Amino acid sequence: MPARPGGNNPVTDDAVRQQQQQQSDRITVALIPQSAQNLQDLQDRTSLSKTDLVNRSITLYEFIDAQLRAGNDLIVRDKKTGETQLVRFL
To answer: Domain residues for 45?
Structure first.
């Protein structure tokens, strides 16, 4: 991009970094049949796009992984019965 008269460049290093951070990564993934069906079920149930569902899934997995690596447990509690279950990932 050409500099403005007077030598000022309208694009600063910070602006370039911010723009690069806002760009999204694109990937192509081959889903196993069960995952493809789960994705379709989620899309039907939530009306979210596949992109939104995949982004949320990655964010959730990152959170769970960080918690487990920190030595915490993942526990699911049934609101009606109060029953809790320990969730394990192998």
So the answer is: 27-87
Using a cut of 0.70, tell me whether the model's pTM lies above it.
no
Q: What is the number of domains present in the chain?
A: 1
Give whole-number Cα distances, 90 to 2, 51, 56, 65, 68, in Å: 55, 26, 21, 12, 12
**Cβ partners under 8 Å of residue 43, min gap 6:** 49, 50, 53
- The string of pLDDT tens digits covering residues 30-44 is 999 999 999 999 999
The continuous run of DSSP H or E covering 42 comes out as helix 33-46
3-state secondary structure (DSSP) of residue 58: helix
Beta bridge partners, 37, equal: none
Mean pLDDT for all residues in the chain: 87
The residues near 54 (Cβ < 8 Å, ≥ 6 apart) are: 29, 39
